[in-house]
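To the structural biology subgroup,

Please find below the input and predicted structure for Histidine ammonia-lyase, which we are adding to the shared reference set this quarter. The sequence is reproduced verbatim from the submission form. If anyone notices a discrepancy with their own records, reply to this email rather than editing the shared folder directly, so we keep one authoritative version.
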Amino acid sequence: MAEPVALGLTPISRADVVAVARDGVGVRLTDDALRAVARSREHIERLASRPEPTYGVSTGFGALAVRHIPPVRRTALQHAVVRSHAAGAGPEVEAEVVRGLMLLRLRTLAMGHSGVKTSTVEALAGMINAGIVPVVQEYGSLGCSGDLAPLSSIALALTGEGDVRVDGVLRPAADALREAGITPVSLAEKEGLALINGTDGMLGMLIMASADLRKLMKIADLTAAMTIEALLGTDRVFQAELHALRPHPGQGESARRMAEILADSEIVASHRGPDCTRVQDAYSMRCSPQVHGAALDTLTHAELVADRELASAVDNPVVLADGRVESNGNFHGAPIAYVLDFLAIPVADVASMAERRTDRMLDVSRSHGLPAFLADDPGVDSGHMIAHYTQAAVVAELKRLAVPASVDSIPTSAMQEDHVSMGWAAARKLRKAVDGLTTVLAIELLTAARALDLRAPLKPSTATAAAVAALRTRVPGPGPDRHLAPEIAAAEELIRSGGIK
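Predicted structure (tokenized):
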């Protein structure tokens, strides 16, 4: 197992988030972090003893912030806010999303601006390291005032209430904490609010989706190149000189990759001579770097936003260096929500272009000598006809998922929270979109590999031949019709596992 991720006063990386959330890597709190947490707690305790009200310390929350809470009721207040806000509904979200939530909330707390006790951050770190995953449900966050219901479910488990999963098994939180040697937290002033007031869920999902998309864009360049090769297209449009005329970084990167993939293709070389009458390939082939590159540049922008968020202390109110406790609006999820929605657009468009290329390989009038639907005996066999239907259905769904969530807002909390980001919803649909793009590219991979096999005895490039060979360890080559669903699933798994790159 990798070394634990250190949580302190400096930002963690996106790779750290993926390691803890997805790969089960542990965490450790630095000495600097523990000192900063202790200092901020001293400020909260001093304010708690004063008669004047301080939001989150000696008042109610949201629309109830006008009520002053006497000292004897403040522990009850913090537990009450956690219980009442743990009001999620719907199916459980994935364990990696919950671990991301836990990590990113702990990261903010460890920066020393939230006023929690050191024992509280140590208990939360202990839960992460023990593999205790609180049950968090799909609905309950509007992406403003934090991912409230999801984070409240985690805070509830930290106090020994609610349910968790350990190694996938549902357990009462109290039992899981006891077996891990973790003392349930008794929440003091400000702590309940500090545990639930962050944009951690949407940020974690943005980071994991970005990591997945960074890999999928390489697959998109590969499958596009395979299709262009299979359709007797040209690689001349990927010359660096052409893309230097329009110097978008992503476009240049995509074109360079595609040129490298096709560099030694015998199939491409076979029709480079003066006898070739095809002047230009269709847009879905010729313009692949422009579309893939724009997607890459959008992804780079989203990663920049994620990096800024990883350097942020998202809480309300916050404890400043001089001890002041100030209300703020940094919990608003708009910066994250916008890029989550933004990414869903190129995901849909990259998938749409892959579907168009796949369709060309199956259409005997446009495939330049390939059999109809790449069938073994067209008419008796249907080949990849219905695999394309599946691909088209997924693309249609991706277009629906590209409709932004962040343009909506439903006022809540008696109009105190009168504009919300809907960033959690944007994150949830982006996760579905990433899965959909994987399916679309898997079907293009299956189809292009079959088409390249059918171009024999001409040989594909070294890179595309390696991709075909990797696929053939799981899916047999051309032949009579077979059950295709398992082959699509196998191609998806090959992509997800990194079996092709």
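Summary notes: The CA atoms of residues 51 and 293 lie 59 Å apart. The first strand starts at residue 5 and ends at 7.

Regards,
Lab coordination
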